[in-house]
Amino acid sequence: MKKKILAALMAAAMVVSLGACGGNEPSGANGGDASSDKVYQIGICQLVQHDALDAATQGFKDALIEELGEENVKFDEQNAQNDSNTCSTIVNGFVAANVDLILANATPALQAAAAGTDTIPILGTSVTEYGVALELDDFNGTVGRNISGTSDLAPLSEQADMVQELFPEAKTVGLLYCSGEANSQYQVDTVKGFLEEKGYTCEYYAFSDSNDLSAVVTQAADNSDVIYVPTDNTCANNTEIIRNVCMPAKVPVIAGEEGICGGCGVATLSISYYDIGTATGKMAAKILKGEAKIEEMPIEYAPNFVKKYNKEICDELGITIPDGYEVIE
Predict the structure, then answer these.
(1) Residue 175 in contact with residue 181, Cβ under 8 Å?
(2) Distance between CA atoms of 270 and 277, rounded to whole angstroms?
(3) pTM to 2 decimals?
């Protein structure tokens, strides 16, 4: 009898022990509270290397490391060299590796990620307009499904105000953008309306890739008093081409973001890409720790916008910048 009782007690102890071991297994991105022993695999697909996108990626990584601990997060960071097909290849690799979360830095990267998986959480950053990028007819600030993120959109009405503030005597504004970037099309369409309300004549100057950029910029400079460039990744990666055409022609460029302005522009309404990357990293931490559901997370926007100018180009063109602008360092 004693042997039977002892055997029963040992069996019960084994059941308790096994249950305790099972409870210590770390859970994944969708599994609630995470164990401190979990090492999260994060895939980062960045469209192209330039200052703005680099800053957003760094902000994301710094924030996630701060939130989870450096020992608990591993990044697979890949650059698509401004090729949307390469974005798809990178994302497919992340899906095959079953990463815990994907950061899609720039619109083509987001589009590739959205097409590549509907289960792995996807956070976008440096994306201007999510409704346009994802072709959502009823976008109301929250994407739903497995996608959320941060936007780099600065108020387009205020960018139009900047054109008028700096160049009130101008008559024509050339809208220079890459036709392959949906968010660029959205920006120039929107700012065109604001500029036309102010009495400017606006013309589109679209290029397909960097190979025809020089010819299109030359045409725009020949026919415009001012050129407006939105937050366009191809332009950001080729500011030297734009500058080499516009400076000899003495045609000023108003840019949608600081990186482009620093390369070829006179002024911009700037946001911090590092800050929106940081905000994205904090969103990622909440998802991975089970503190928030990505399908319920609204898109976040930069809280602050700063007027900045390129002193070197302004001096060379003889443009006097009014008070209220900061110099791009």
Answers:
(1) no
(2) 15
(3) 0.80
Q: pLDDT at position 19, please?
A: 39
Q: Per residue in 20-49, pLDDT tens?
A: 333 333 334 444 444 467 899 999 999 999
Distances (CA, A) of 273 to 107, 206, 270: 14, 25, 9
Asked if 299 and 81 count as a contact pair (C-beta separation under 8 A), the reply is no
pLDDT, mean over the chain: 90
Cβ 252 vs Cβ 246: under 8 Å: yes
Tokens encoding 116: 């590549």
Distance CA 246, CA 104 (A): 32
Q: How far apart are CA 37 and CA 46, in angstroms?
A: 28
Consecutive H or E run containing 328: none
The single-letter code of the amino acid at 81 is Q
CA distance 203 to 192: 8
Place of tokens 């309404």: 269
With CA atoms as reference, report the closest residue to 146 among 137, 134, 156: 134
Q: How far apart are CA 83 and CA 37, in angstroms?
A: 37
**All residues at 6 or more sequence positions from 301 whose CB lies less than 8 Å from its CB, including other chains:** 150, 151, 153
Q: Say how far apart CA 269 and CA 258 lie, in whole Å.
A: 8
Quick check: 197 pLDDT over 90? yes
